[in-house]
Amino acid sequence: MTPDVPAVESAIDDYLKDKINVNVKLNFVDWGNYQNKTNLMITSGEKFDLMYTANWLGYANSAAKGMFAPIDDLLAQYGPDIADNLAPVYLEGAKVNGKLYGLPSNKEYAATQALLVRKDLMDKYGFKAEDIKSYHDFTNWFKTIKENEPSIVPFAGIGDMESVINSQFEQINGDYFGVLSKQANDLKVINPFEDPSFTEVLQQARDWYQAGYIVKDAATTQVTRDEFMKNGKVFSFMVGSKPGIDKEKSLTTGVDLVQVDMDKPYTTTGDVTGAILAISKTSKDPARVMMFLNLLYSDKTLLNMIDWGIEGKHYVKKSDNIIDFPEGITSANVAYSAQGDQWIFGNQFNSYLFANEDPKKWDNFKAFNDAATISKALGFVFDPTPVQNEISACLNTYNQYSKGLFTGTLDLNKYLPELTKKLKANGMDKIIAEKQKQLDAWAQAQGKA
Amino acid sequence: MSRSQAAAARRSLWKDARRHRFLFLLLLPGTLYLILNNYLPMFGLIIAFKNVNFTDGILRSPWSGFDNFKFLFSTTDAWVITRNTVLYNLLFIAVGLVLSIAFAVLLNEVRNRVFRSFFQSAMFFPYFLSFVIVGYLVFALLSIEHGFVNNHILAPLGMEPIDWYNDPKYWPYILTITNLWKNIGYGTVIYLAAIIGVESSYYEAALIDGASKWRQFGSITLPSIMPVVVVLTLLNIGRIFYADFGLFYNVPLHTGLLYPTTLVIDTYVYDIMVTRNDIGMSTAVGLYQAAVGFVLVFLSNWFVRRVNKENALF
Amino acid sequence: MENAIKLRQEEKAAERPRKAYQPNAVSRPAHAAINVLFVLYTLFCLLPILLVVIVSFTDEQTVLLSGYNYFPSKLSLDAYRFLFADPLPIVRAYGVTIGATVAGTVVGLLVTAAFAYPISRRDFRFRNVFSFFAFFTMLFNGGLVPWYIVYSKYMDIGNTILALILPNLLMSAFYILMMRTFFATTIPAEIYESAEIDGAGELLVFFRIVIPLSLPVMATVGLFYTLQYWNDWYNSMIFINNDRIISLQYLMQRTLLNIQYILNNSHAAATARIDFPSETVRMAMAVIGIGPIVFAYPFFQRYFVSGLTVGAVKG
Lengths: 449, 314, 315
Fold this sequence. Notes:
The structure holds 3 protein chains of 3 kinds. Chain B is an all-alpha fold.
């Protein structure tokens, strides 16, 4: 729903004419097919300049295979204003084999996990967020709901226990085959499936499931937790969190939610590589692309043109940094906006806020970032090549059991040993050893060991 | 062969080609299309033996031998996925064949034309649905919470609900029935077309001889459609290492616990490729599947040739 | 030529008595049993589809809280309202799909038949070579990327309607070989001999005799091509970057994927409310997707009933 893309493009061109003289062509690709399409563009060598990528879209792998241009030198030469507008952890965390291949968006760079709870029921039964010291304490709430609200399931349970796991362990390379303990914050790679706190989480899931606190079909249903919440089926679910997540989710589900934080913000390589703009290897003039990036991080006008379109046409200013839709226009029929994906571009702290958003949003983000514990392994990127086949085999084994165990559908006394044994047979130890080896080498090179 | 014989053979080859020059004209568009759509991209098969990086480009990337194939065999499930793929395909080919022919023959006996058209259309209907939708329908039937079977069949009978999605042993039946339900109309249409093509004079002669319906089927219908049966079966054998991704991915709702009876080569590879976009590996899988199918078709075709040369594929 | 025209007249004449007189029918009880069997099987096929239709008209919350039901407690048009909120894209996509389907089916059928005919001729010396040439493509392919490069770089048909017609869909070796077998078994070799004596050219034989005599298989393959074009979303996804020329199924698939993405991804569209009934929308899209194509089926089915009269040729 962006029929005005050409209009915005020409407005941007006009604006940039005297600055860096470029013609901008915006290419919107749907999220649903984003990975397919961009992979194809890259592998077939199509010509383009700049694209969005991220760790979960294979940023490190693509960079290692030479799909993106290394930008250290370009940054030094043509991006003088970027360093001022981008927290240093980002440049640290986005390096692959010591070289920078993309610029992360400046936004929240830490993650926490939180339980989102229906406010009406919380008030009704007098639940207090302070009572929650660990996830085990949810049991009391769930029990009350189960006993008093027969039509409501206390906990969605779909992918929720992974949040609990993620609050305790730092994944390396996006999987659980060798992780770091967040509590210890050291550089020792451990096997989570043999860690007591991991088993504890699964046992809790199993107990909740058997007590009827988790949606029965949690392991197979295709309905998401947000939908269950929206339709009044569940009392709570968990999310990877950031400031204002309760407001965001209240908006999407149409249900008033309260956020119960589970842990302190923590920053890992994965958190700083969630949104990256990378220059394609096929770009004809990477220097000029870097000049454009330089403006994207420092020039408020340019960023907001890309984020929100043309002033007066697609938005109106309420005050310096607060905007709203013009008369008669809503988010459903506005002819241009980055469709809620503003976070992928440049310096988000320069982006205008909508009138219905928390005017302190960016201040909250900054405070959140400042409070974050930085992982010792920040900036370490694992090269999976030596153990690719083992990872594939383990992934398959993991998929076989994970949903069943995380939702409590499966008896962990029977299936967890089975899973652990099969993972071992498929080379789990080899992966852990390789991760440890690369991590040690990296630490040594960084002078951290 | 003497030189003059060779020359004569060449002459007759040339003569034949000239005599059928219009046939070549008919072959031309299809041939060009196959070259463009299939044979040109086939040079990409070398990617299966390369460790592709984009600094060097595809052609200059280093060779990697059979490295790209290894991941298929390095898992403890290698045997399971191969077994599942082959057994399901054999089952689908055999049962599908018998049922399609049976339906086609019976349909041909329905005298009322309106009924016949209606039955035929209705049978074909499930083919219109995508496996994504079929997956949801199966879930509506079997889910533990609202499933039709558990709540409206087993419960009234006083039986314990069955957690279908937690036990792999049910799935060979569920997948087979689902697949037949969706695709049987397709096979029936083909065999119906074949049966309609049988010359009616044969049946008239059989009628005069007083042959029973069964005899007519055995000595007229079946032999007449045999060439179609043989060719379709040969073609299906060629794809025996390819599983229907839609069926095996969507219908079990990618439930991991069902892997022992639902994981096939294509779904296994898909799960890995989601996290690893490696064209070397995906090309290698395709090549492996094709090569096995090719060998099998070659053997089967050789066998068919020995029995009846006319029916062979090539 | 003369001969061919005569054939067609005889064909018409032969049809009439067949309808009235059926000496070779099964016994009454057997006939009844067959009908009962088909009625049951028809129900088995249609009831699930009826469920799809009903769910598409059910209230979303009812579906989420009590599952799929033939007799839902609350009906709703929300799914269709959501999909047709802006009807223009759907109408346009219908147009694109119909255009690509008609063009692709007609051309594809012709090219396929033209290829299948020569290799069905036993007197054609190179039949095995070309059969193998076609068969080989059924198994081996170079993978997505080289194939994509051929079409997008060398043919340069990206973002055109041709991209919905040409790549992969136009002709399939499977149907070539199937059709070859039909031609070889249903068309008597004598026809070619008599045609040769008459001096009718090969092309005439093909167009005036082989095709009319093979209507059932032409209809079968035509139906399959039609469905294949109708159901295709992949070519749109790969080759098209312009919403004006995407196929209906791609529009549907994309809507679905985007809904899923929004639901599963915490950082997407943070400000957008989940204002779509995703469960029922899925079913509504299936209904919209199969609706019109169902009416194409009887068109092809006609040729199954009238059809072959090879007997008349020989007579």
